[in-house]
Design a protein that fits this description.
With 406 residues, the protein is mainly α. It is 63% helix and 5% strand. It is built from 15 helices and 5 strands. The strands form 2 sheets. It has a 3-stranded antiparallel β-sheet, covered by helices on one side. Strands 2-3 form a two-stranded antiparallel sheet.
């Protein structure tokens, strides 16, 4: 075996991808969705922990101005009674007595826990309703794309072997051109699977439903905080009635005493922070959903370097709102797991830089050129066997012309 044949075999064997590992750490959430989950769920949990820490460290959350003749126990009783009732006793414009409940302030930290749970529900829906099927789809498609690349390289290896053993090189290239025209090199299983996913809508419905629920919960939380500010969060002082229980029959007890909420400013800051951040998250949620309105054609266009893989050129990509577009988005997020993508991207870049790029349509053409074979059938002179020195010069010259684009 000549040195040129040995070099070509080593080059083609190095071009093969290793067998993929079955246990893949696939990302089943887009980067934008992970940031949304971290902020939408983590922010209220973090702030409510600060509120509880403030409550435990400061002790009583209310300070009432009891009469001077009250003992210490009576003052403590007045604080407890007013905190338990949280009713503001006042008068309207006509002088009639009215009461206003401030109980929303007491349950405000616990309502933030409910908000955090609500924000996590859309991600639970995605995790249990869509992630298992998406994981299976990604595993199959990634494996098939890598295997399709390997089949192309093995095809070139077989072409080299047949060309070396053929008595008539001209007949070999005629057979090769006929096979290309009749699509013998296509990958029907992968293309038909992707076309089938284009007609499916289960993943895209769940994805849109998740974003719709998240947007609804964000808007509902903002409306709840606006309601608190308009009705309660501007009233840190209120009048409390303590003529109940043991003090109901005491004549020296005044009907109303003024009280002040000591945690009021903390709750205001927490509500403004959550409301402001959630308002900023709404456009991010809308943007995540609008990603499905256009195709990510960059990934599939690179894979058109595979023989007869023309999902784009055959106009199979129609309306982008389907499961195939969702899978393409997650393939982009798991591009590190797709080893063949970097190889084909490099080949595509070299094809654009090559002077004779009209003859380099697929990765098979590129590999045949690097292996020292002609990418197309010779037209002016027959393909004659070369000596060792001529084969090496032809091989190195082909590689150099592709790399320099000349």
């Amino acid at each position: 075996m000549s040195l040129s044949h040995t070099a070509a075999e080593y080059m083609l064997s190095d071009a093969l991808l290793p067998e993929p590992a079955r246990a893949r750490g696939l990302r089943l959430e887009l980067p934008s969705d992970r940031v949304l989950k971290f902020v939408a769920v983590g922010l209220p949990l973090f702030l409510v922990s600060l509120a509880f820490a403030r409550e435990f460290s400061a002790g009583s959350q209310i300070s009432c101005f009891s009469p001077s003749n009250f003992t210490g126990k009576q003052s403590a009783y007045a604080d407890t009674a007013c905190w338990d009732s949280l009713l503001h006793h006042g008068f309207d414009a006509e002088g009639r007595a009215v009461t206003k409940s401030l109980w929303a302030l007491k349950v405000f930290p616990y309502s933030l826990l409910v908000v955090a749970v609500l924000m996590y529900l859309p991600y639970l829906l995605w995790r249990y309703a869509a992630s298992p099927a998406l994981h299976s789809d990604l595993l199959f498609i990634i494996d098939e794309l890598d295997k399709s690349y390997n089949r192309s390289v093995r095809l070139v290896q077989h072409m080299r072997k047949v060309q070396q053993e053929s008595d008539d090189p001209e007949q070999f290239w005629e057979e090769y051109e006929r096979a290309r025209q009749e699509r013998y090199f296509e990958f029907p299983l992968l293309e038909r699977y992707l076309a089938c996913k284009q007609r499916s809508h289960s993943l895209v419905i769940i994805y849109l439903l998740r974003n719709l629920l998240l947007l609804l919960f964000l808007a509902a939380t903002c409306l709840y905080l606006v309601f608190l500010h308009l009705n309660i969060f501007f009233q840190d002082e209120f009048s409390c009635s303590i003529k109940t229980g043991l003090l109901q029959a005491e004549p020296h007890v005044p009907p109303l005493i003024p009280c002040k909420l000591v945690f009021f400013s903390v709750f205001q800051l927490i509500s403004l922070t959550i409301g402001g951040v959630y308002v900023l998250l709404m456009p991010v949620v809308i943007y995540s959903a609008l990603q499905l309105c256009q195709w990510d054609k960059g990934l599939l266009s690179v894979y058109e370097m595979l023989p007869a893989f023309d999902l784009l050129s055959r106009k199979m990509l129609t309306c982008p709102i389907n499961d195939l577009n969702v899978i393409l988005l997650f393939l982009r997020a798991n591009i590190s797991e797709l080893t063949s993508f970097s190889r084909l991207s490099a080949v595509s870049a070299l094809r654009e830089a090559a002077a004779g790029k009209q003859d380099i349509d697929t990765v098979v053409d590129f590999m045949t050129l690097l292996a020292g074979l002609e990418a197309t059938k010779p037209k002016h002179q027959p393909c004659v066997p070369l000596g060792n020195g001529e084969a090496i010069g032809r091989f190195l010259g082909g590689v150099e012309s592709v790399c320099r684009g000349s």
